[in-house]
Amino acid sequence: MIADEPGTDALTARSSRVVAARKLQRRRARDKAGQFLAEGPQAVREAIAAGAAVDLFHTLDADVRHTELVDAATAAGVYVHPVTDDALASLAETVTPQGLVAVCKFLDQRLPEEAKLVAVLDGITDPGNAGTILRAADAAGADCVVFGTDSVDPYNGKCVRASAGSLFHLPVIRGGDTAELLDVFDHAQILAASTGGADLFELAANGELNGPTVWLFGSEAHGLAGSTAALAHRKVGVPIWGEAESLNLAVAAGVCLYASASSQRRLRS
């Protein structure tokens, strides 16, 4: 075990190490420390694999259930700390914690200039939707995800959990003005996801999704701001063929990203 405090006694909620980590639940503290929390075995596993984990807190029960993760963290040089159930609960943001929380360093990411598929989040403040879009983008093979103007922090705890580890798989650009960030992608078409836009599947059938594409996604309640939507070459919508009023934002984003990814893969094959 690598530890910064002598002995193997479980740390309590009042331990200085636990108190310092708990502050990372707030964005201001995350920005100051350049660190964030990843909760649960999936996120912790990916954090260790990416070399992002700095500290790992685990309950004694989690050490038994997830021995391979604790061992992997130790082998990777992560500081590993057994903690009481109350201490772990103070670090976790879920109702039923799974006994593992890692402190991770911010990921050093850059915009890939020759990206073929990009998701840009603009004004999306719901961390669950944002994290799920990040997960969908990863699954579709996107080159990066951009959290643009007025979007939630990708290092928000709920967003990290919703990404199910995808935060550690591809470049995630945090903050900045959406319009300025889009300047990097002048080689790509920019499509704004919008109800009432051109039929997504007709575009795919006509080969209009074959080239490099940047997707703009706005908030579920209000959509894209007019100034952001104006940056797009075209508005595109997912058709509703049943009786549903609409699609959840993350579901619609996943459909758009997969339509583009499928078209691009067919072109390469």
Structure description:
By secondary structure, this protein is α/β, with parallel strands linked by helices. The protein folds into 2 domains: 16-105, Ribosomal protein L30/S12 (60s Ribosomal Protein L30, Chain: A), CATH 3.30.1330.30; 117-267, Alpha/beta knot (3-Layer(aba) Sandwich). Helices cover 37% and strands 20% of the residues. The strands form 2 sheets. It has a 6-stranded parallel beta sheet with strand order 7-6-5-9-8-10. Strands 1-4-2-3 form a 4-stranded mixed beta sheet. Helix 7 (127-140) links the parallel strand 5 (117-121) and strand 6. It is elongated and about 65 Å long. Belongs to the class IV-like SAM-binding methyltransferase superfamily. RNA methyltransferase TrmH family.
The count of β-strands is 10
Strand portion: 15-25%
What is the general shape? elongated
Distance between the termini: 48 Å
CATH topology of the largest domain: Alpha/beta knot
Return the average pLDDT rounded to an integer. Answer: 94
**What is the number of independent domains?**
2
The CATH superfamily of the largest domain is known as SPOUT methyltransferase, trefoil knot domain
Order of helices and strands: HHEHEHHEHEEHEHEHEHEHEH
Count, helices:
12
Q: Based on the structure, what is the oligomeric state of the protein chains?
A: single chain
CATH class of the largest domain: Alpha Beta
Low-confidence stretches: 3-7
Pfam families: MRM3-like_sub_bind, SpoU_methylase
Organism: Glycomyces buryatensis
Protein name: RNA methyltransferase
Keywords: Methyltransferase, Transferase
